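User: I'll paste a sequence; please echo it back and then give the predicted structure.

Assistant: Echoing your sequence first, then the prediction.
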Amino acid sequence: MATTQTTRGRSQDRAKVAGGQDHEVKYEAGKTGASKADVKSAVKSVGNSRKKVEDKLSKKKATAAGQMVRIATFNVNGVNGRLPVLIRWLTATNYDIVCLQELKTSDEKFPADAIREAGYGAIWHGQKSYNGVAILSRGVDPVERRRGLLGDADDTIGYRALA
């Protein structure tokens, strides 16, 4: 951390950014919502890389607030045929919520047990050989609020929706 003089004579704390450019602690604090002390602490712990400082501050903020949720979508194009790929991907990425589309399986043949073994609860709305969606939630069972398209009492044309 270096202190530099501005053209008006005020000193400002700056964290050097990779590539030789300076980055003002004040700017970073305003950008991330962190205090100047938090920015200085992040620079001290991870070095002078702007990206590392921003990552450190965002993780601290998310952890403190407990609000960071990672969500992903996956077009599986046949959940039973791609189940090994899906399970590896779920394990490697560790998303909190995963939305699957193109299940191409009936509700009865959805691989709920295998998905539960991977650490995810699931709700699904399938159709044999066509369409189908699912919502997976890491560590808990999602709660189904609605099935089908809102306003479409006769969901027969193949659209599927869960909420």
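The CA atoms of residues 93 and 104 lie 23 Å apart. The radius of gyration is 24 Å.
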